[in-house]
Each structure stands twice: as C-alpha cells, then as structure tokens.
Design brief:
This protein is an alpha+beta fold and about 230 residues long. The chain has two domains: about 80 residues, Elongation Factor Tu (Ef-tu), domain 3; about 140 residues, Threonyl-tRNA Synthetase, Chain A, domain 2 (2-Layer Sandwich), CATH 3.30.980. About 20% of the residues lie in helices and about 40% in strands. The chain contains three helices and 15 strands. The strands form four sheets. A six-stranded antiparallel beta barrel has the order 2-3-7-6-5-8.
Length: about 230
C-alpha cells in the first residue's frame, strides 16, 4: 500500500514519488497526494512529470495494491521518479464542499438527530441524504442557513488518527445511518472544533470560514424516511 500524503496535508499541491507498479496506463506510486474516488468525493486530477514530459492523470482509483493513477498515455516504467502536480482549483473546491457536508450533517443532526444515508459531492452542486421522518422544505432550508452562519463564524478543522476501538467510543463518530467505517486498526478522524467529530478519509479545509456561503438549492423526498438536500457554495 502506498502512503496517502493528503491524510496529513490536504493543501499539498505537489510531491515527488517513485513508480512501484505499472499496468498499461495504471500507475502505482510509493506515495501520493492524489485523492482516489471514495466516500462520495470524486478523484483528483492533475499530472505526473517525468524526464520533462507531462502525463495527465485523468482518474484515481483505490485498489488492494494502493492508489491507482490512470494516465492519459503510457510511457512510465517501474523505478521512474516522478513529480506529481494536483489540479488545485478542483481539489480546493472539493475540500470546501466536503467540509460543508460535515457542517450540514452536524447541523441537521443537532436539530433532528438525523443521520446521513448517503452523499455525493460535485464541483457545482452536491447532495446529502438524511434519515428524516418529516419532509419539510422550509426547515431543510433553515438548516442550510444555520450551517452557513456557523461557517461564517469560523472553526478550526483538525485531522488525526485514533485506534478504531477508541474512536468508536466518541459520540457521533459514525454519521452514516447504515454503514460503519472501514474495518482497519486506526480510523482517521476529522474534527471541526466545537461542532463536529467524525471518521472520514476525505480532504478538508483548515478552517470552516474557507467554505464560504452554503446555499441550499432544493430538497426532495426520496423515500419513507429519506430526504435529499442539494447545495452549492457561493
């Protein structure tokens, strides 16, 4: 397994690494700052530079061997030293979107006790599903406004690892209604000081002020107790 550099620094835009495995246009590095699709967050894009040539990274996926970087054309080989460059505009937008999802889930949980049943981040419009009994569009709009006010006040975001057993003892650590975190010895914890603490492997901003304004676009009834919120950042 390769080392995921974004776990400790989501703001890392560039890094150096070595190709340790290759298959066609699938590249595995010994360490990477590229985020692989997972947890409702899409992959990073960018490029790998080797011997003065750019190899566009078009997709990043998880595998049993580690993070797989899909490049647009072959040319790299095992042992090559590469310089990775993240598409920062895309990465930072997802950092803001993902942290906003945490603030929204904490806000809805605070007022209703509802858990998240699913989420999907996108660059312009993201969505979260909640296990809400009542479908009240006005209240969902109010939750978004409250979350936006919380962001304006600011709060530090910290990430750290805890033994799985210790992490799961923390109230609210699991915000997903029907899924537990991966069965690994340690869990990565994302803590928004005074607001939210939950297990998460995504990329996040250092302070929720960076999120900007959260705007709820619409709400939908997706089942007996499943309500969907669409939101964007402005």
């Amino acid at each position: 397994m390769n080392k995921s550099l974004y776990f400790s620094d989501s703001y890392l835009k560039e890094f150096d690494s070595t190709v340790v495995a290759m298959e066609g246009t699938n590249v595995i590095l010994d360490q990477t700052a590229f985020y692989a699709t997972g947890g409702g967050q899409p992959n990073d894009t960018g490029k790998l530079i080797c011997n003065g040539k750019d190899y566009a990274v078009t997709d990043v996926k998880k595998s049993d061997q580690g993070t797989v970087h899909v490049i647009a054309e072959p040319g790299l080989k095992i042992g090559d030293r590469v310089h990775g460059v993240i598409d920062w505009e895309r990465r930072y937008r997802f950092m803001r979107m993902h942290t906003a999802a945490h603030v929204l889930s904490a806000t809805v949980n605070k007022f209703t006790g509802a858990l998240v049943t699913g989420k999907q981040l996108d660059l312009q419009q993201s969505k979260i599903d909640f296990s809400l009994e009542q479908f009240d569009k006005d209240k969902i709009q109010q939750y978004g406004e409250e979350a936006s006010k919380t962001c304006a006040s600011g709060a530090q975001v910290k990430t750290y690892f805890l033994p799985r057993e210790d992490a799961l003892k923390i109230p609210g650590m699991v915000r997903l209604a029907e899924r537990m975190p991966p069965n690994v010895p340690e869990l990565r914890v994302v803590e928004i000081i005074g607001i939210d603490t939950q297990a998460c492997g995504g990329t996040h901003v250092n302070d929720i002020k960076e999120i900007g304004t959260i705007k709820v676009l619409k709400a939908e009834n997706k089942g007996k107790t499943n309500r969907r919120m669409y939101y964007t950042l402005v």
